[in-house]
Amino acid sequence: MNNLVREIQLKDKKQWQELYKGYANFYKVEMNIQILEKVWSWLHDKNHELNGIVYEIDGNIVALAHYRRMPRPLKGQDIGFLDDLFVEPIHRGKKIGEKLLNELKNISKSKEWGLIRWLTHDDNLRAKALYDRVAEKTSWNLYELK
Length: 146
Description:
CATH superfamily: Gcn5-related N-acetyltransferase (GNAT)
Distance between the termini: 47 Å
Structural class: alpha+beta
CATH class: Alpha Beta
Strand content: 25-35%
């Protein structure tokens, strides 16, 4: 069995779409072809901030992570921001999420970001168990202004 973490590639589009629809469904967010096409184009636009890595098992991608650079003005440096992390339900419990986070840590070091930030929903208990094990929970609250 061949397992690896790698950058997302053009050949992954169909499998990525299914994974991303699963991610949207998990968070009860409507997904449509326009959003899928927009995000896919961002992932392959060298001038756009969004990047992606995937976890592949025997030629099939079973997990994804989308990340980007984010400025941290108070420190005068860039950091990384993890926007999306999703593992197919049948592949959970195999440390795939942890492997993706470890790769993001390596990417962060190579880009001299210093750290990666992300957020998750309060009731995402399984993911939070992983995050509590590998990262430090902050005391910040999230607000949205519409």
